[in-house]
Write a structure and sequence with these properties.
The chain has about 625 residues and is of the alpha+beta class. It is built from eleven helices and 38 strands. The radius of gyration is 39 Å and the shape is elongated. The two termini are about 40 Å apart.
């Protein structure tokens, strides 16, 4: 119940006055008379009018006080709130991404979002039922299917679990749209940020959160160089004031290694570099921790596994003197172990991480059946490739130029060879799993793909022959391109890697929400389990692991044996920025509530006034009866 005129309750102060009137009555003067027989009635009346004597009859003042109270309540205009009715279905999508764990006034934004949804559930009824969905949960993201049972809806809202993953809204909105089949159906999105929505015309936005202050880690890399581990982190300050940040480097178990202090101006990003001796630390987890408290804890700490130095074995199969290519491969790093063989010496052994076939030789081998080899590079193959089902190939002997590049692929980052001219190339129809990286007007010049757990990179021209193209003399783009090709292929040789494209060379460092592929040798496979940072165990039915929804260190077990460990961190600047809804979004929220789910208000002062009349009649009857 609500009161439309609550100021009327100030009149309650008049009730004590009514009570006092029954105590404060006039005294009468005393007279001496010869007899009291005629004055007995007067004596009784005198006794009743002595102020502050004990009341012998309480019913009359109680009725009068109650009458006054009911009149005051009527003036306050009491009203009942009746849930609004939507003639259709309602879908509430609750954002439970990482940024919703930022704290405001001691509560997380997710807790505030749940309170907002519960309030709307109590205020509205939908003839087609209400559904509860969460942005970061297994498909189809449904926490509670359509129902009108408010107890089930409330339990579903309370059971939404927080996650450390960044928000991915396209898929959940697509799922929600499938259940919208009339113009009366409504979708409500409850979040702290409405940026980068896939379709802003679909959800009615309900804003959660205010401005928050945060300083977080947005980049973290660990690399072994000789006998040292080099640890690089980038720290960003999203506040409006200069901050001094204390940064601690620790080994698992809490052993402190080093500590540094960094001063960050407002909105500034700075790098911090640590270097530690690698001796005795192989396989150990290391963490970087910001010691300063802020509104968001998830980006204040990152982890990495100090993996042992692994040789990157490259086998070059060539009958030509490829000195330029050999020097380029060796300059990739001291971890490269390069071996060159001729066509006659190659027998299909799989003891290399990458096999490079130069000039299209040895193509009688079925690459899909080469054991132990994860990656294969083919340079200038003028024959049909065994791993490509193709009707025919075309030898292009006219001069062609590079006209298109796939700028979204990690290999093409910071690289551009637009305009490169090639005198002779091969044109073939790419397989369905093939992706073109560099194209000419005649077709793909460089393409790649993954098939049968092997990675393929194909150059359709003789990239390392100066008579065919000046690719090698395109400095620094050509060397960087080759290094990034090797980096992409090397990433595919590790036992745990991204299911999609490798985005960086951080090794066993991944981001929350990413899907991973775990390659366990067949001989070691039994029951595969993953231990999450909260110590819960997940048993895998396949090689794909999707539950990277917590920051920290994960452990992979094959049977009872530890197979590998990897680290998962947030490292997402958009989540760490802690965006909050704008004034425009708040206004839109109020409009949505008013037009769509505002509860009805029905005044009931008429009933209280009728009750007051009944009390008045009772008081009149009792007074005259006495």
């Amino acid at each position: 119940m609500a009161f439309l005129n609550p100021a009327a309750f100030y009149l309650i102060g008049a009730i004590p006055i009514v009570i006092a009137l029954h105590f404060l009555k006039l005294r009468r003067q005393r007279y001496v008379v010869p007899s009291i027989m005629l004055w007995r009635a007067s004596a009784e009346d005198q006794k009743a009018n002595v102020p502050f004597q004990r009341l012998r009859n309480l019913l009359l003042p109680i009725l009068q006080s109650l009458l006054l109270l009911v009149i005051i309540v009527s003036v306050a205009r009491p009203a009942l709130r009746i849930p609004g009715i939507v003639h259709g279905k309602i879908i509430f999508i609750v954002d439970n991404s990482a940024s919703m764990l930022s704290k405001e006034m001691g509560e997380t934004r997710l807790a505030l979002a749940k309170q907002e949804v519960l309030k709307h559930i109590n205020q509205v009824s939908a003839s087609g039922g209400i559904m509860i969905m969460a942005t970061d949960s297994p498909k189809p993201y449904i926490q509670q299917a359509f129902t009108t049972d408010k107890d089930k809806l409330q339990r579903a809202v309370q059971n939404i679990v927080p996650t450390h993953a960044a928000g991915e809204l396209t898929s959940v909105f697509d799922q929600a749209k499938r259940y919208v089949d009339s113009s009366q159906d409504q979708i409500f999105f409850i979040s702290d940020s409405f940026e980068n929505l896939p379709d802003t015309s679909v959800p009615n936005k309900i804003a959660i959160g205010e401005a928050a202050e945060n300083i977080g880690i947005v980049q973290f890399n660990v690399e072994r160089i000789a006998d040292q581990y080099t640890i690089l982190a980038r720290i960003q300050n999203w506040t409006d004031t200069e901050r001094e940040i204390n940064i601690a480097l620790e080994l698992e178990g809490g052993t402190a290694i080093d500590e540094k202090t960094l001063t960050l101006a407002p909105k500034e990003v700075k790098s911090v570099l640590f270097s530690i001796n690698a001796e005795g630390l192989e396989g150990v987890a290391v963490s970087l921790h910001l010691l300063n408290a802020d509104d968001f804890d998830l980006d204040n700490r990152v982890w990495a596994i100090l993996n042992p130095k692994k040789q990157f074995r490259i086998l070059l199969v060539s009958d030509r003197d490829q000195s330029l290519l050999i020097e380029l491969l060796r300059s990739y790093g001291d971890r490269v172990e390069l071996q060159t063989v001729s066509t006659d010496e190659f027998h299909g052994t799989g003891d290399a991480d990458v096999i490079i076939f130069d000039g299209g030789i040895a193509l009688q081998q079925n690459f899909l059946n080469v054991p132990g080899t994860e990656s294969i590079i083919v340079i200038n193959s003028r024959r049909e490739l065994p791993f490509v089902v193709e009707p025919s190939i075309e030898i292009v002997t006219t001069l062609v130029s590079v006209i298109k590049e796939d700028r979204t692929h990690p290999i093409m980052q910071d690289v551009s060879i637009i305009g490169l001219q090639v005198k002779e190339s091969v044109h073939r129809e790419l397989p369905l799993w093939g992706n073109s990286l560099i194209e000419s007007e005649k077709g793909a010049l460089v393409w790649l793909g993954t098939e049968a757990n092997k990675q393929f990179l194909v150059f359709e021209f003789d990239a390392f022959n100066p008579e065919i193209s000046d690719f090698l003399f395109t400095i620094p783009d050509a060397p960087i391109f080759v290094y990034q090709c090797l980096e992409w292929l090397e990433a595919g040789t590790v036992p745990i890697k991204l299911l999609t494209l490798q985005k960086d060379k951080a090794g066993q460092i991944f981001r929350t929400g990413e899907q991973l592929k775990i390659d366990i040798p067949t001989l070691e496979r039994s029951t595969i389990q993953v231990k999450k940072p909260d110590s819960s165990m997940i048993e895998l039915d396949s090689e794909v692991f999707t539950e990277t929804d917590q920051i920290g260190v994960y452990s992979v077990f094959a049977g009872d044996s530890l197979f590998e460990r990897f680290a998962v961190n947030l490292l997402d600047a958009s989540e760490s920025a802690l965006s909050f809804p704008t004034t425009e979004s708040s206004i839109e929220k109020q409009v949505n509530e008013k037009d769509l789910i505002q509860p009805l208000t029905r005044e009931i002062w008429q009933w209280t006034a009728l009750f007051a009349v009944c009390l008045l009649l009772c008081e009149w009857w009792f007074y005259h009866r006495s």
